[in-house]
Each structure stands twice: as structure tokens, then as C-alpha cells.
Automatic annotation (TrEMBL):
InterPro entries: ARM-like, ARM-type_fold. It comes from Methanoculleus nereidis. The lineage of its organism: Archaea, Methanobacteriati, Methanobacteriota, Stenosarchaea group, Methanomicrobia. SUPFAM superfamilies: ARM repeat. This is HEAT repeat domain-containing protein. It holds the Pfam family HEAT_2. Gene3D superfamilies: Leucine-rich Repeat Variant.
């Protein structure tokens, strides 16, 4: 069982694996904070766990946090892809 402080430490350390594990914590506040922390990091590994969580978590507030974090991750991934595409020179 993690604490909010531990989740904050994982976020600061960019410990995506630890935060993904914290999504399974029995404490809904820890799960919500872990989800939002993953959203701020926006690592592609968080996409699938957040997607599942936003649909399946028993807590409405956790589902909402996961949905918000999921949007952040997807948005960041789309930004990265758009940047990559704009750097590819046109073919002749």
C-alpha cells in the first residue's frame, strides 16, 4: 500500500512502473493521484493501464482522474507524432 507522498516521490522520479503499480492500490486517493501523476509524465506505457482504469475502476472519482490523465497522455503522444511528421522532409 502506497501513500500520497510516495506517489509524489515516484512522479518526481518519473517512476512510471511504480506509478502503474500504484493504480492497483486499495486506497482510491492513491489510485487517483497515481493516475494524474502518470498523466503529467505522459509516458506511452501509461496509456493502456489508464484506459482500462478509466473504464473499470470501481470509484467514479478514480475513473474521472484516469480519464483526465488518459487525455493528457494521448494528447502528448499526438503532439510528439505531429512534431515528428513536421520534421520529415517531403518526398519528391
Amino acid at each position: 500500500m502506497a501513500t500520497i507522498d510516495e506517489v509524489d516521490t515516484m512522479r518526481d522520479a518519473r517512476d512510471v512502473g511504480g506509478l502503474i503499480q500504484a493504480l492497483q492500490d486499495p486506497d482510491e486517493y492513491v489510485r487517483a493521484q497515481a493516475a494524474l501523476s502518470l498523466g503529467t509524465i505522459a509516458d506511452p506505457k501509461a496509456r493502456e493501464p489508464l484506459d482500462r482504469m478509466r473504464r473499470e475502476d470501481p470509484s467514479a472519482s478514480v475513473r474521472e482522474a484516469a480519464a483526465t490523465a488518459y487525455r493528457w497522455v494521448v494528447g502528448r503522444l499526438q503532439e510528439v507524432e505531429a512534431t515528428r511528421e513536421s520534421r520529415i522532409p517531403p518526398t519528391r
